Amino acid sequence: MRRSHPAFSLLTVLVLSVGHATASPAGQPATSDPGRPATDRTLTKDVLADGVYLFRAPEALDRWTATNVVVVVNQDDVTVFDSFTRPETARLAIAEIRALTAKPVRTLINSHWHMDHWSGNDEFRKAFPGIQIIATAETRGYMSRMGSAFLIDGTRAGLARSREALAAAIKAGTTSDGRAVTGDLRREREREIDETSRFVDEVLAIPRVLPDVAFRDELTFWRGGREFRLFSMTGDATGSAVLYLPAEKILVTGDVLVSPPDGQGPPPWTTNSYAIAPWLASLRRLDAFDATVIVPGQGPAMRDKAYLRLTVQLFAAIVDGVLRALERGTYRADDIVAAVNLDAIGRQYPNGRTGPDTPFGTMVARLVRKAAQEALDGIVK
Ligand SMILES: [Zn+2]
């Protein structure tokens, strides 16, 4: 099932992960087994280097996305990059950290303002009261202005549509796609609606704990002998923090590099607070790092640059395709979208599905429209 990003205001999302839900207690050990069943709500742990771990939440648990959280155990303390989508997931991660080490988490980095990356801030601060939370000044500004209601709006709208659709199906005896409304189907849909409704309430109630350290372009700090370099870049949100560990050659990108949760296929979505020209520049900047491990905003860690480079190629082709279409005299947005076909690039991703009705097709169309607007605005040139 496909998830949408929180900052998308459309909701395809909604009615998803129900039926996967048997909660496991916090602190249950993480597993490295990629073949674990969908009912498993424990975190996956990937060891990236000595003391550097990637924790990944199952989609069924995180619902919105499956945000990557990197935990770095230093000489005296722990540094964490991003804090998950849900308080429950953050609590699981905190239990995992405590199983790894008795050292406290003293530093938490928020990659960007989309709530799937920082909703666990409150849990981390409760667990580690002395913690410092770092983000870019732009991110902190967005966090203070864009509330939970904005981010959950699409989910709420979808919830209302799901309720209406179910009521109509019960009345007609069949769903809109012609399935008979059996008792099982009705119960399943009701359960989905109920779970989503509780998720909406949960998101609205998450305490919004803002960063207390902000930087603009770059920030370097040391913990014990370990060096952390932060850079402000553009991803699916402007002013996104990217982390580079130079000794370990690990690059943690947040949603500057968007990957599907299972790592299969092209980038599945884009969101709102960015321009494509600086995003492309940031992707090229990522490529210039001496990195042997790349951790995208979600999905498995990458041990080479193939996915990054293909995505650079994709974004460059979008910008180029839009400019060439404009030069040929095509100026209406719909016509430009029709003129820019990048399926050949989409198919180069592992299991890349392309076409207008796929997430890739939707994403490319959105980016093409955005690039066309930016060509008018003088950002793309
Ligand atoms: Zn994002």
Ranges with pLDDT <50 over ≥5 residues? 6-39
Based on DSSP secondary structure assignment, what is the total number of beta strands?
12
Terminal-residue CA separation: 37 Å
The helix/strand series, from N terminus to C terminus, equals EEHEEHEHEHHHEEEEEHEHHHH
Strand content: 15-25%
Global shape: globular
What value does the Rg take, in angstroms? Answer: 21 Å
- What is the share of helical residues? 25-40%
Briefly characterize the structure.
The protein has 381 residues and is an alpha/beta fold. 39% of the residues lie in helices and 17% in strands. A hairpin with a 4-residue loop joins strand 10 (240-245) and strand 11.
What does this structure look like?
With 381 residues, the protein is an alpha/beta fold. The protein is 39% helix and 17% strand. It has helices spanning 59-62, 87-100, 121-127, 137-145, 148-172, 183-205, 276-288, 306-327, 333-339, 343-346, 359-377; strands spanning 44-49, 52-56, 68-73, 78-81, 105-109, 132-136, 213-215, 218-223, 226-233, 240-245, 250-254, 293-296. The strands form two sheets. It has a seven-stranded mixed sheet. Strands 8-9-10-11-12 form a five-stranded mixed sheet. Helix 8 crosses helix 11 (359-377). It is globular and about 60 Å long. The model is unreliable at 6-39 (pLDDT under 50). It binds zinc ion.
